[in-house]
């Protein structure tokens, strides 16, 4: 039987991108839970080789508005107990941090566009990140952040947000930034979230973000593909 990875997708515009491409190339099957279509989060994580949670505009603290949040958190907690790897991207990273016992809350500003992140000492030596530059540019679209949970380490920081990438336990990871996006996905982000972008003071214009995408995306995707391949190698 082929190994299967659960992909939790919160909104249509934030799919797995190059993560899905790397998973398919590695020979894994993918099972999607598309929450924006009303699909339900599984109660248990057994039967999967890993859980990957994508991004979305909702806050982890908005359980009353988005009831699926409590079920997704329970699934991640179940995965931790079973030593099953979890990867979270943006909202997924915030979910992972909360499931591991850390608070999630609004940051003092929003990061939208292309920003540099720097690896910490733990990040430089982490098996998923070994060989990556100590500082590199990533795509960001978030305003929330989180503290470092127990049994976790911080692997990367930016000027505005000190917690950009965490490892929980041995092999679960939360990426506040986006490395999975394609150019078409960036364009869709700009279209779907145009009102949010317009409301951020000093934010880059859509034109500038697209110009930066042309410059940086190929490199970001290269790093992202390396990260996903290494993550998949550790799956049982």
Explain this structure to me?
The longest helix is centred in the last third of the chain and has 28 residues, at 206-233. The chain contains 7 helices and 9 strands. By secondary structure, it is an alpha/beta fold.
Structure described in brief:
This protein has helices at 18-25, 68-81, 91-99, 121-125, 183-192, 194-198, 206-233, and strands at 4-9, 29-34, 50-53, 86-89, 104-119, 135-146, 152-157, 165-168, 172-175. With 236 residues, it is an alpha/beta fold.
Sheet having the most strands:
9 strands, mixed
Beta fraction: 25-35%
How many helices? The count is 7
Number of strands: 9
User: Distance between the terminal alpha carbons, to the nearest Å?
Assistant: 13 Å
pLDDT averaged over residues: 95
Q: H/E order of the elements? A: EHEEHEHEHEEEEHHH
Low-confidence regions: none
CA radius of gyration:
16 Å
Classification by helices and strands: alpha/beta
What is the 3D form?
Answer: globular
User: Roughly how much helix do the residues carry, as a percent range?
Assistant: 25-40%
The oligomerization state is single chain
Strand order of the largest sheet: 2-1-3-4-9-8-7-5-6
């Amino acid at each position: 039987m082929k190994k299967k990875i659960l992909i939790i997708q919160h909104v249509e515009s934030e799919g797995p991108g190059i993560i899905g491409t790397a998973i398919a190339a590695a020979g894994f099957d993918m099972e999607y839970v598309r929450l924006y279509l009303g699909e339900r989060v599984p109660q248990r994580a057994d039967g999967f080789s890993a859980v990957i949670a994508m991004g979305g505009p909702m806050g982890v603290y908005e359980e009353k508005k988005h009831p699926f949040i409590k079920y997704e958190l329970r699934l991640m907690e179940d995965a931790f107990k079973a030593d099953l790897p979890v990867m979270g991207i943006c909202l997924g990273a915030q979910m992972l941090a909360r499931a591991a016992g850390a608070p999630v809350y609004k940051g003092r500003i929003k990061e939208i566009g292309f920003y540099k992140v720097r690896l910490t000492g733990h990040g430089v030596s982490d098996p998923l990140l070994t060989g990556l530059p100590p500082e590199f540019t990533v795509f960001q679209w978030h305003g929330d952040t989180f503290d470092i949970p127990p049994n976790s380490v911080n692997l990367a920081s930016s000027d505005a947000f000190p917690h950009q990438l965490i490892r929980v336990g041995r092999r679960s990871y939360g990426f506040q930034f986006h490395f999975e996006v394609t150019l078409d996905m960036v364009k869709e982000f700009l279209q779907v979230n145009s009102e949010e972008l317009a409301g951020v003071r000093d934010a880059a214009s859509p034109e500038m973000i697209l110009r930066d995408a042309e410059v940086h995306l190929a490199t970001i995707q290269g790093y992202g593909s390396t990260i996903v391949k290494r993550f998949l190698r550790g799956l049982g």
